[in-house]
């Protein structure tokens, strides 16, 4: 038995869905612990592509229990649409395979409207949110004004809370954001219409997972976004509104840290980010366009083109420390296959100072320029290789340098989007090399 957390080690979009899908074979439970439908995990099984926004990536495996933990915020309409799409394709035939913690906070129409209107009002100072209402929902959760999943299933409770909350939201929408107010009755009719379909999924993550551990079962904790978008440890305020680092797996499910055995951070062989905020290695040139095209770097949730740049070791070391990573899964190695040389940022220059630790001060980070080391490319197709030893020496040298710079082993390499385009150097569940 082993319990593993999987987190993004960059600004998100690192390929967590594929890695979760691969490791799901070795566990009985997959639990999502934070975020909402602002995240999109893309999985390719055979030639079939699946994009999941809320439901854990383990749902593509039969007989695995998938849990949405209390740290998640949930849009019931999006959730039910995702369920319907999966059922039409033959997945999730047993509703008992999926559970939602009763403490999950619900994304309401006013959250989405406020999210979008704030961005418009902010103009050039916008954060770059997805407009899905994630941030405003977390605000209400922390402000103790949230409506929970369990509340939605009790009509009287839901109506009472909505009646208490909506006047404040409408005042803010009308008088500050210049938007039309929302109808209490229309919201109640829509959301209570979802309730009966949702009731079958109600459960409690903490007690269910605790019992699973006592039964000798393993758990995979699935994070969304990336470490550099963490509300405390990311590039604040250009972050998401939840704890994306490994510690969030405990608060987002109700389990203590002593149950965690492995923490794997997913990193691309280069870097991308969406939205606003500093990005020291960003490439605003033809090379940036080349990486975007070769890596198909467009958001799984929004379709937005991602900003691209060279691998940033300073930021990756930060992720190793804040998450306590026991291993790195390196994805999209194949995207670099056509390049003559590859650059890696090993430190920053800030004025006359050389910086090797990721700055917490955003003004300092924004003023940093990367110091690069150039590495020879391999200029060969590696997408069909099945064993690490078969990779070109330049690839293996690149991996060795990353391990040396981060003091963390690379346990898995992805050389293409499909399940079978994965090279495992060591498997934390089997301990085989």
From TrEMBL:
Annotated keywords: Cytoplasm, GTP-binding, Ligase, Magnesium, Metal-binding, Nucleotide-binding, Purine biosynthesis
Binding site for substrate: 300-306
Signal sequence extent: none
Gene3D superfamilies: Adenylosuccinate Synthetase, subunit A, domain 1, Adenylosuccinate Synthetase, subunit A, domain 2, Adenylosuccinate Synthetase, subunit A, domain 3
GO biological process, one term: IMP metabolic process
HAMAP family the UniProt entry points to: Adenylosucc_synth (MF_00011)
Subunit structure: Homodimer.
Family in the record: Belongs to the adenylosuccinate synthetase family.
Name under which the protein is recorded: Adenylosuccinate synthetase
Organism this protein belongs to: Pelovirga terrestris
Gene coding for it: purA
